[in-house]
Amino acid sequence: MITNTIVNTFSSVFIIAELSANHNQDFDIAVQTIKAAKEAGADAIKLQTYTPDIMTINCDNEYFRIKDTIWQGKTLYQLYEEAYTPWEWHSSLKKIAEDLGLIFFSTPFDPSAVDFLEDLGVPLYKVASFEIVDIPLLRKIAKTGKPVIMSTGMATLAEIDEAVRTLRNDGAGEIALLKCTSAYPAPYEEMNLRTIPHLAETFNLPVGVSDHSLGIAVPVASVALGAKIVEKHFILSRDIPSPDASFSLEPDEFKTMVESVRAVEKALGSVSYELTDKQKESRVFRRSLFVVKDMKAGEEFTEEKVKSIRPGYGLHTRYISHILGKKAKVDIKKGTPLNWSLIL
Question: How far is Cα 248 from Cα 201, in angstroms, rounded to an integer?
């Protein structure tokens, strides 16, 4: 149970708008972003709770310089200094989100962040892909007894198994896993969405997707493969200077994603061969056997005079071989649906 939202095989997809660094250190932008996420159809807003000093040290030697990503040229400390959400904002943002009917929660990055979020009263926790191997942090989160959503980017199957066992053994509430490709932005060819049903089967847990690709194709496709959670970065405008802007969705895009996800949910339905009322109405437009030329009584039925055509008021097409060569019992006008009473 995630507050009043149940995530299971039969539930609606739980859609999370990730605020991340998309506030540009401006509280008013953060507030506007939360309101826009609600209008766009999100179920929840998620923050990240850390400070630069929690994440790394202020050092610019080669080990701490970022290479080969969209953040190339920065040190880790510089990136997190630019991206973190001030902790003094959390309480106000939580109230604003919950007043709007959104679920508010966060990703803690060290034990002090867990303590802070516990005092704040968040209903669940997110574990980031990079922290899936931080076993002490997982234990700290698990001991709260609250539900946990855990991203699995970069993790081997063995690492996921160890993380899940750690959460379970230390008392976590319900657990869900997110298929994630930890590249920013993530290329489509590296998404491997077929992992979603395998993860669900392997761990017998709800599975979703944390998506850093461009656009909405990946989250929508993931739902068709069984994803029950969709997490996507959300930004008011990609013109806002943010480390995550390039792979975040603007409000109109996020709304389109939500609408597409909800449409796919409806379309998935269940395994069924029963006809809907609309399908039953359409059966009349199937093919059946009709007389297509005027015929006299005693005249032989031939392929030129009897055909399988639409609509479906005549005999079933399976009977054509039984009828050819037989004779008409009465005069028959062109366009008459064939039935047994017309056949000698």
Answer: 30
